[in-house]
Amino acid sequence: MLGDFGFENGQLIVRNTGARISINQGFMKDVASVASFTMEVTAIRAARSARSYVDGLSHPGSLPHARPIRICFTPVAPQVWYAIWPVCRLAGINIVRDPAQADILFYFEDRETAGAMPAVMPGKYMINSRCSDIRKSRVAEVFEQVFGYCLSVDPYTYSGIALMKSERNGVHDGQITPCPYVVPRQGAVFQRLIDNTADGRIYTDIRTPVVGGTLPAIYLKQRTAATRFSNHNFRVRLSSADAELSASEQTLVLEFAARIGLDFGGLDILRDRHDGRIYIVDVNKTDMGPPTALPRAEKLIAMQKLADAFRAWVEPMAGNTIRAA
C-alpha cells in the first residue's frame, strides 16, 4: 500500500498518476471516512457469510453447494479505496492472487495507457482488457464519434474561452484560458468550457458508474467556483440514471463506454446549462469510491447497487450456480 505513494514538499504523490495530495485536515477526514466504511463493509460481509453458514447447517441439502466466484486483478490488486474492493465484498466475490484459481480476471492498472497487457487465460474473461487508452484526447475523440458533437477545441484556431488541462487522470489542474492560445504546452488538451451549473454558482458533476453495460447509480458531486476543477466536493448525493439522463442519453453513454472498452469504472459527465447537452469529460477505469462526502447510508446503498449489478454480470461468465454469500 505504501509503495503506491511518494512524499514531496509535504504532499503525497500517487506514483502511477503523478497526482498530488495535500496532507491537511480534509485529507485526514477522508482517510477516516474510508477506514470507517471499509470496516463496515468487512463486517457486513462477515455477517452474511456467517448467516449463510448457519442456514446451510439448518437446511442441509436444500440448496446446491457452490463455491463463491473468484476474481483476480492483474497486474496489481486494488486497495480498499477503489470502488471495486467494496463491490466485490458486498457481492460475495472472493479476490484471489493466482490467476489460475480465478473464474474472472480484471485488468487493473491506475494509469492512462496500458503497458504490457497481461495475458488472458483460455476460457476466462478479462474485465477492462479493451480499455487501454483513457487519455483526455482519446476520451474527446470517442465522445465526438458517439455523440456527434465536439468537446475538444483547437487552441490555435478557436476564438473564446477554453479549458486547458493535463492528459493525465487525477491531476485536477484545469485552467480557464483565452484562445487562440499560441504558446504550446506539452501534455495539455484544450476543451470547451462547460457551464455545468443550474444557477451559475454551484457546479455539478454527474459521476456515472458503469457496470457491465448498465448504469446502476449516479453521484451528483457539487462544488463551488473556487473548487470547480478540484476533487473537493462540498456535497454529494445519490441519484439514478433515469433521474439524470434521458433514455437516448443513457444509450449513448453506454455506447461510449463500450467503444472505449470500459466494462467497469466511472464516467465524469457534465450537462451544459446553455445548450442542455451532456459531455463526457473523463473516464476512470480504476474508479475510487464511494465519494467520501456522500452520506453514510447512501454509500452502502450505492455500493450495494453496484455490487448487485456486478454479480449479475459476472455470474454467467464465471460459469457457476452460486447463492448469495
TrEMBL record:
Origin: domain of life: Bacteria
SUPFAM superfamilies listed in its UniProt record: Glutathione synthetase ATP-binding domain-like
Gene3D superfamilies linked: ATP-grasp fold, B domain
Protein name listed in UniProt: ATP-grasp domain-containing protein
